[in-house]
Amino acid sequence: MLAKERLRIALQKKGRLNQDSLDLLARCGITFRIASNALFARCENLPIDILLVRDDDIPTLVMDGVCDLGIVGENVLLEKQLYQYNNGHSAKFNLIRKLGFSCCRLSIAFPEKVSYARVQDLTGLRIATSYPNLLGAYLKDHHVRADILSISGSVEIAPKLGMADAICDLVSSGRTLEENGLYEASVILQSQAVLIQSLNPLSQLKEDILDLMLRRVDGVLAAKESKYILFHAPRAALQKIQSILPCFESPTIIPLEGCDEKVSVHVVSPEGVFWKTLENLKQAGASSILVMPIEKMMR
Ligand code: PRT
Ligand code: ZN
Asked: What's the CA gap between 283 and 89, in Å, rounded?
């Protein structure tokens, strides 16, 4: 098949997004054999190729139409988009799915001894960041004038070195801030990995592959959230139990051998199941309750 008839997806080569991106494709049945240090891999069972690059290059590869799709963090995507706009270039793409992994936030952080109450407290300060365009837009939106120091790494040590009064950087657990004597003062962006598509029109063949892939991605995402719940219950309590359980469709009720008053109930819940729900089920008469993960789902 001609290379132009194969859907091309840009993924991060190494780093926090890499494994989750490949796992998502694998769970969609899209598998690759990737030689170490390879920049390119062909899918073995579908007309799909992947390009393995630095995450910072993914937005441009998709916006320029070199790749049809890309998986990247919203933080990198929006920073790149603002950079393009601020430099007079267009930067368009379709954000087609939020993928729910590599979650983090872009936050302003201060040394522990410095207090912060509101955004105006940033006025006149020097803030170090690798996200000058996102920070600039945030300050502009809040009519605050501050000095942005653009640095590409180790942002957390800037206040200690006397280079900046505060920082604006990615945070997930908060451990790095703590280790550097900083505290998170304000979140300016919540970010997760997203699937983006180029605005370049696709051939019918590529469109069909994309449809198939998106159906599978949706199945994987829905399955990740959902749980299969299985328990025994008195027939007489079924109505009450149904009102407790969130489920996609009517539960499957199966008779139990040699026991007329009890049945086995099988339910797919569209969301995680809290202990409280299990306790309510038990109180309503359910027993032997099992909650199981679902690997794939097609509705
Ligand atoms: O080499 P390449 O350019 O491809 O990768 P990279 O080094 O630029 O990025 P990488 O692999 O570190 O991160 C890729 C993406 O993962 C980011 O763009 C985010 O979308 C997402 N992500 C999720 C994170 C974090 N969590 C994260 N915690 N990216 C970075 N961090 C860093 C943060 O910069 C800080 O230094 O981890 C530290 C904070 O972590 P905590 O847990 O201590 O708060
Ligand atoms: Zn990067």
From this structure: 61
Mean pLDDT, the chain, rounded, equals 94
Decide: 97 and 147 in contact? Cβ < 8 Å.
no
Task: Show the ligand 1 pocket: residues with CB < 6 angstroms.
Answer: 12, 14-17, 54-56, 73, 75-76, 102, 104, 169-176, 191
In what order do the strands lie in the sheet containing 48-53?
40-42, 48-53, 7-12, 69-73, 193-197, 94-98
Model pLDDT, residue 39: 93
**Which numbered atom of ligand 1 lies nearest the CA of 193?**
20
Task: Determine contact, residues 197/62, Cβ cutoff 8 Å.
Answer: yes
Instruction: Give the number of whichever ligand sits closest to the CA of residue 79.
Output: 1
**142 vs 81: CA distance, rounded Å:** 20
Tokens of 94: 């379709």
Give nearest CA residue, ligand 1 atom 33: 170
Beta bridge partners of 39: none
Which of 57, 101, 104 should be mutated for ligand 1, with most atoms under 8 A from CB? 104
Answer yes or no: are the C-beta atoms of 292 and 242 closer than 8 Å.
no
pTM: 0.90
Six-digit token string for 80: 């790149």
How far, in Å, CA of 295 to CA of 223, rounded? 6
| Cα angle, residue 41 at apex, residues 39 and 42 outer, rounded to 5° | 155
| Greatest C-alpha distance within the chain | 78
pLDDT of residue 225: 84
Distance CA 181, CA 157 (A): 9
**Cα separation, 133 vs 141, whole angstroms:** 12
> Among 153, 170, 34, which Cα is nearest to 102's?
170
Which residues does 234 contact at the CB level (< 8 Å), separation at least 6? 261, 262, 285
How close is the Cα of 280 to the center of ligand 2, in Å?
47
